[in-house]
């Protein structure tokens, strides 16, 4: 089995049951440290719903990660530019960031943008892309990274780094074999290798990651991620004008948006 990032030969870690029915091999790359499942043939079944019933942290995640995004976007990027939330789900983060004052847009191939209707991302250049909890879903990370880079050459994202040595499947919740969607697991070495293939600088703090063509101070990245969560985001919001009311006025002047029926 070849690594889907660097094409090195991988070694089998173990075989475990995915979706309570499929015996699946998990493989590790000795070159870039990537951990991957065998080629996933079960994804149509795994994605019969955009969100799994056990993903109870969707709203909390947007609020928590949004705080770090506020600090990073305000101090390390052009706060007046356009931003995009890639794989933005129901648009929760985009609505939150617009309520704070950032010009955010959402895109997702598998979920309907309910919360930030009218602010779906169009092709173009964006100052920064966020991509929270989606890298672990990529069958071919390089190809998916190229799709995000088509929007922005700076990507702020989260994914849980795989411990080393790789734990047994019962000892690490992030494998999540019950829903079968986590098929790509990374370590900092993996992401540095992946970013390097595209000329990107890589910055890391625990499960927070940043790819960027720009050179930033690793200390500044870590400080803004932490400080945003600890309250700097609240201070920043005092210097921005919320788009909540202006968005409502803008949408009233446009043709009615279609009603989504589930």
TrEMBL record:
Keywords in alphabetical order: Methyltransferase, Transferase
Record keyword Hydrolase present: no
GO biological process, one term: methylation
Pfam family, one: Methyltransf_23
Keyword Kinase annotated: no
GO molecular function terms listed in the Swiss-Prot or TrEMBL record: methyltransferase activity
Coiled-coil stretches: none
Name of the molecule in the record: Methyltransferase type 11
SUPFAM superfamilies according to UniProt: S-adenosyl-L-methionine-dependent methyltransferases
InterPro entries from the UniProt entry: SAM-dependent_MTases_sf
Gene3D superfamilies (UniProt xref): Vaccinia Virus protein VP39
């Amino acid at each position: 089995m070849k690594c889907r990032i660097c094409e090195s030969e991988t070694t089998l870690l173990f075989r475990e049951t995915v979706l309570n029915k499929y015996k699946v091999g998990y493989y590790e790359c000795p070159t870039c440290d990537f951990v991957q499942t065998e080629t996933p043939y079960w994804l149509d079944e795994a994605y019969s719903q955009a969100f799994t019933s056990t993903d109870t942290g969707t709203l909390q995640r947007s609020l928590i990660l949004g705080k770090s995004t506020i600090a990073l976007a305000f101090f390390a990027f052009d706060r007046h530019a356009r931003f995009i939330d890639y794989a933005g789900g129901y648009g929760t983060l985009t609505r939150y960031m617009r309520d704070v004052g950032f010009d955010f847009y959402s895109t997702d191939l598998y979920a309907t943008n309910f919360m930030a209707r009218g602010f779906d991302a169009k092709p173009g250049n964006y100052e920064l892309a966020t991509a929270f909890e989606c890298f672990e879903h990529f069958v071919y990370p390089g190809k998916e990274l190229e799709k995000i880079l088509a929007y922005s050459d700076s990507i702020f994202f989260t994914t849980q780094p795989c411990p080393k040595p790789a734990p047994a499947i019962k000892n690490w919740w992030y494998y999540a074999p019950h829903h079968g969607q986590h098929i790509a697991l990374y370590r900092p070495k993996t992401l540095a290798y992946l970013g390097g293939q595209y000329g990107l600088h890589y910055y890391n703090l625990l499960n927070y990651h940043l790819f960027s063509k720009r050179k930033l101070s690793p200390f500044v990245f870590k400080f803004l991620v932490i400080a945003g969560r600890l309250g700097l985001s609240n201070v920043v919001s005092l210097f921005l004008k919320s788009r909540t009311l202006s968005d409502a006025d803008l949408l009233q002047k446009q043709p009615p948006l279609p009603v989504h029926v589930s």
